[in-house]
Amino acid sequence: MNDQTSFDTATRVAAGDDGTTYDRVSITLHWLTAVLVIVLFAMAVTWDYFPRETRQGLESIHVSLGMLLAAVIVLRLAWRWMPGHQVPSAAVGWVKNASKGVHYLLYLLLVAQVALGFGWRWAQGHSVGFFGLFGIPGPYGQLDKATRHLFHDFHEKIGWAIVILAAGHAAAALYHHYALKDRVLGRMLPLARRSERGW
């Protein structure tokens, strides 16, 4: 066993990966992504019902959480591409290919959504701030109204696409767990493994 292989094995052991489930880091980043997407989406579709001052506060938090989501996505991709952290699919044949396609599409949409969020904020002439601690200034100044609306429209549509696709993804996992009784859900949700023991 060479040094690289030993390191890869050590990182898998340290992360708690037994070879049949996702490691703790992958699970944590997965559910952190899910929570952030749900919170960000909920804020975006409800802040119009609040007074202007409250809405501005929610928008500020939305931007900060969006920056956090960007960091989580970068960590997820880095961890996923690190040698030794790829987990074989529990599915086979076309199901395996479809599952991979959904994952890649979700990653693509998440990256596009974060990029559009940054771009829209900069197009408004603002920096992308993180809870008032610091801000990332844009590479350009405030853009014209039509361009700002374009950023907004794409950001909104991709947000809906992510939520719809993620809902289908979750429904499929629940179907595997309760109908097919396989380990697809248990590989990413440790609590679901308890019910698998009786199968």
Largest sheet: 2 strands, antiparallel
- CATH architectural name: Up-down Bundle
Quick one: CATH class?
Mainly Alpha
CATH homology superfamily name:
Transmembrane di-heme cytochromes, Chain C
Percentage beta strand:
under 5%
Helical content class: 55-70%
Description of the molecule:
The chain is built from six helices and two strands, in the order ααααββαα. 16% of the residues are buried. The protein has a two-stranded antiparallel sheet with strand order 1-2. Strand 1 (128-130) and strand 2 form a beta hairpin. Helix 2 (24-46) packs across helix 5 and helix 4 (93-123) runs antiparallel to helix 5. With 199 residues, the chain is mainly α. The protein has one domain: Transmembrane di-heme cytochromes, Chain C (Fumarate Reductase Cytochrome B subunit). It is 68% helix and 3% strand.
Describe the protein's topology.
Layout: H1 3-14, H2 24-46, H3 52-81, H4 93-123, E1 128-130, E2 134-136, H5 145-180, H6 193-196
Antiparallel strand pairs: 1-2
Helix pairs in contact: 2-3, 2-5, 3-4, 4-5
In a few lines, what is going on in this structure?
By secondary structure, the protein is mainly alpha-helical. The chain has helices at 3-14, 24-46, 52-81, 93-123, 145-180, 193-196; strands spanning 128-130, 134-136. It has one domain (20-189): Fumarate Reductase Cytochrome B subunit (Up-down Bundle).
